[in-house]
Amino acid sequence: MSSGEPLLSSLASHQDSLKPPPRPLPAQSTSLNCLCTNSSFSSSTYEDCETRFSRFSNGEAFTSIGELNRNESDLSQVTGRFHSADSHFFQSFRVECPPEEKPTHHVNWSVMDRPAGDSAIEIPIASTRQDKPNKSQHVRHKSGLQEDPFSSEYEPRLVYINDPRRTNDKYEFTGNEIRTSKYTFITFLPKNLFIQFHRLAYVYFLVIAALNQLPPLAVFGRTASLFPLLFVLFVTAIKDGYEDWRRHRSDRKENNREALVLQSGEFRMKKWKNICVGEVVKIDADETIPCDIVLLGTSDPNGIAYIQTMNLDGESNLKTRYARQELICMVTENLYSGLIRCEQPNRNIYEFTAAMEFNGHRVPLGQSNIVLRGCQLKNTEWMIGVVVYAGQETKAMLNSTASPSKSSNLESYMNRETLWLSLFLFVICAVVAAGMGIWLINHTDQLDTLPYYRKKYFGHDDGKDFKYYGLGMEIFFSFLSSVIIFQIMIPISLYITMELVRLGQSYFMIGDRHMYDASSNSRFQCRSLNINEDLGQIKYVFSDKTGTLTENKMEFRKASIFSKDYGESLQDVGAPLHEITSSGPLTRQSSSKSEISIDSELARLLQRDLVGEERIAAHEFFLTLAACNTVIPVPLDDPFGGHSEARSIEYQGESPDEQALVTAASAYGYRLVERTTGHLAIDVHGERTRLDVIGLHEFDSVRKRMSVVVRFPNNRVKVLVKGADNSMLSILNSDTGNEVNNLLQSKIREATESHLTNYSSQGLRTLVLGSRDLNEIEFKEWQEQYEEASTSIHDRTAKLRQAASLIECDLTLLGATGIEDKLQEGVPEAIESLRQAGIKVWVLTGDKQETAISIGLSCRLLTQEMQQIIINGTSESECRRLLSEAKERFLIRSGDGIGRNGSMKGAYDPKMAHVNDDSPGFGAAPLALIIDGTSLVYILDKDLESELLFELATSCKVVLCCRVAPLQKAGIVDLIKSRTCDMTLAIGDGANDVSMIQMADVGVGICGQEGRQAVMASDFAMGQFRFLKRLLLVHGHWNYQRVGYLVLYNFYRNAVFVLMLFWYILYTAYSATSALTDWSSVFYSLIYTSLPTIVVGILDKDLSHKTLLHYPKLYQAGHRHESYNFQLFWITMLDTLWQSLVIFYVPYFTFSNTCIDIWSLGSLWTLVVVILVNVHLAMDTRRWVFITHVAIWGSIVITFISMVLIDSIPVFPNYGTIYNIGTSLTYWITILLIIILGLLPRFLGKVIYQMLWPTDIQIAREAEILRKIIPKQREMRP
């Protein structure tokens, strides 16, 4: 610098020469020591000269807490304070739990996006339950004689600092003792049984067992009928008891930990469970926070504390929390007093709204001022805070409940078939009851001589005589007895089997090394065990762009300054490169240094003296980049002991965009080196300048911009703003009062808009920068409204947004930036494979249209041959017109876009199985729909327009939604989900994707750069988008094939056993007796046939993973419901009917003229039905491993051994049966004949069908076999 003047001073003098000097600020605004408490850093606002704050105390009248008189002495003592109170440092969006009930199809998805009068966008986190205060959340009112003005959950909680007695005097808040255990010694048995019987299966078995205890209905032995239920209850109770004992042990250990608590003027150790709300706690380094506390001070002079939230949200990187500057004096002077008004306990860990009254001032508190229970203090010697939430009311404990899970689509179809089986059960029981009634009319006098009524065993003289209750009661008893015998026709146990199978499938998905992301050290996560099979039927994938398709690692590439485009001459070698250490914002920190490429022409411009409009414009541009952000510079230790000024800096922040901008500013000589409680320091080419931070309005998806109000060393106050182009260009100053200046600004704006279009077409993310000088009146008006908003407990977001509108207007355009966000590895290949698999990929992004189109082309979502339909409407009528014109132009008829599943919410129609996706009559080229968020505001709110959009969108191969807000993403998903039966999947990485993830049938979270909110709300989580290809095409296909077959097989396995018993009853005078022993009937589904079902459901594979990935079209078998549909169910039932007839009648006719007794015949039926169903399973098993052989053939061996043991017990009526019948050759030949005859139709049917109508899967499987055989033959050749 040749001028010899300080950089900012020369700038100020030059600006003063161009415009009249600003009016001096009032005396009361001279003190600007401030504290940033929120997402970046809190900022403060000026205290008004006359401040009155009030409180209610025990019903007393409105009283003044603090008052300042208007006089010079008071004015000189006013302390400024500023705050971006609504926001928090590591979360850009408000996150709250949505209501429990599912959103209806008439939700106004666009209402949150209207700019006027909106509250903050709220995005649900993992749980979808409504926050309902439980007992631990309610305070106990100690006085019942007067109405409590703060009893409502919407009223603030009052916490008196260092006065727990007064705090809990009127409201007895919960203590800090936690209890995660469910039971006590006394309540364990009744409560555990109550919880277990919430399962419908247990209630069903209990009713059956209870009926069997009644003498007229005692079909089985009382012990045998109770054994399955008691066994399951006992095992579950042991498991639950052990788990609860571990919880008790953990609770005792946690509650008896100790912390330093201020008692009688000094800090003393106190057990965690005895800490109360209002007490002051001191935490030393590496200690865990015992409760939710508001920071009052730390060992850092600026009140900064670093915490790790691993136990709370799984994030390992350090986060920054701040003590308000006004409160630090409490710690230094050891005077702890004041009143905190905070919101009621809630589960939102990403927001905190409160205000503190201290020494006559009201200090706003936000999320960055509170440290939550479970966090650990790191890199800070100590911190002191006051308890605001304790025990069960802490956010960690309120979030400890599991979120409700989604239900499987296949399971809903299974429930339909279960109703058919229930109807069939009713019919056969009615047949038995009616037959018995008819038989009794003619044979009442023969009841005592029959061996098969009421357990009067043949050959046992001590059996009870038959008691006749009358015809009507006998028919009723016969019906109930038949229900007991045929009880397994209702496959209640299938739900438990499916849970075990899904658990096993999840184990192998988690362990898949091909879905491990080394860069983030994250494995695949199964967060839901109920929808594994839905992964094999996905028709629509809704994807976020930034951080999902892209790496979310930003690099500054372009800059538009003073109508000139910079960035074309970027140099990696020979340019003055600056090494800046940059860390990931929320997930992990990187210690590697990155080299920033700079534009040599722009670098030379910035080296010149601060003279000339172009140079000043470049100066203000980079000054805004360095100042208008929420990034924290963290100096790194110099291993060589160099001067602190030369140390490397690590930038920590919530937004990768901001990190890239700050890093770029540093590379060009504007280095952010310090951000303290009320100011920031920028090193401009070696000259350090301090700027006081007066106020901060953080980015939100309504305004789509952020701003910071700063005071320069020359006392000039400016607002620096950056945001999306469509948000910023509309608030620029179009009339400066100078015609020449207007012309210049118009030229700059026109060039900037041209550059923005160019940047977007290159796939760059764009931002526009602006600034404005604030005069005394403007500043005071904003300051008053800002202070009121930042200290408000309710509607703080809306009030802050209103305050921002006062200064975010009439801006001077500084320029624009272009940031490159590279695609993740494998994204184009993954999208292409998904498209070949018949999956439609829709991208929902907040980027502008040109950027989204460019990224769409680069990731192969869009192709050059596609015809693009662009909907950019600015009114309801225009949107309707554009949609209608597009439908007419491309000959799209209503119903063209319906899905494969029958489309419009209905049953599956196999005739639709091969309908082409690309249905528009225009037909020559596939269509791509591109629509912006403004249009969606008008479309999603109207039924007619939504229907038009649905018909148009489902007829397109690709849909690209730009500039969409979070709830609009959920609205797009609901548009498809509510109108079709097609399965939807949403994938994203940020908090703004949570609503979309929870709306979809399957939600997938990316462990990315924007925190873990998406992961916490998802059903599955992974490290990279490319893993979605393997998740769906491989694991999704396998899981769907397995579970589909599992359901059909269980229906068959149970029905064949029931029908065998039914045919027998028809030949025993409808007596509702069984030829099988009680224990054989009980063990059939519990031991004999259960294990093979589970093993095959977990391990079977119809095709290898290589084949499934090489031929993505094989995935469409799930779209066609090839593994489970209504036709397959009835074909299975016909096969079941045939096999049951063979099982019964072959032995019946074979042994009709012999002296074989009924127990010998029952022994044969038991053994043959087990062999038959296991051989049936073996015929359909495609992958054989050792454990499969053990499970299938071992079950048959176990069945035979069990029969030998049961027949060896003298007290049983079948004593010795197996020893007699087992020596007969006819016995074994009969078993072999039954198996052959029973399975022959199935075998022939499969062969004929595969020969004449082979499926894609069958063809691929035969190709796999050939590939294995041919190499072996080649090896055998000489």
TrEMBL record:
Residues passing through the membrane, by range: 224-242, 419-441, 475-496, 1051-1070, 1082-1099, 1128-1146, 1158-1177, 1184-1205, 1225-1244
One MF annotation (Gene Ontology) recorded for this entry: magnesium ion binding
Domain of life: Eukaryota
Segments for region (Disordered): 1-26, 127-147
UniProt record, GO biological process: phospholipid translocation
Cofactor(s) recorded in Swiss-Prot or TrEMBL: Mg(2+)
An annotated GO cellular component: plasma membrane
Residue ranges of every copy of the P-type ATPase N-terminal domain listed in the record: 159-224
Bilayer topology term: Multi-pass membrane protein
Catalytic activity: ATP + H2O + phospholipidSide 1 = ADP + phosphate + phospholipidSide 2
Binding site for Mg(2+): D544, T546, D989, D993
Main localization (coarse): membrane
Residues annotated as domain P-type ATPase C-terminal: 1015-1255
Family, per entry: Belongs to the cation transport ATPase (P-type) (TC 3.A.3) family. Type IV subfamily.
Name of the protein in its database record: Phospholipid-transporting ATPase
Organism in which the protein naturally occurs: Rhynchospora pubera
Upper lineage: Eukaryota, Viridiplantae, Streptophyta, Embryophyta, Tracheophyta
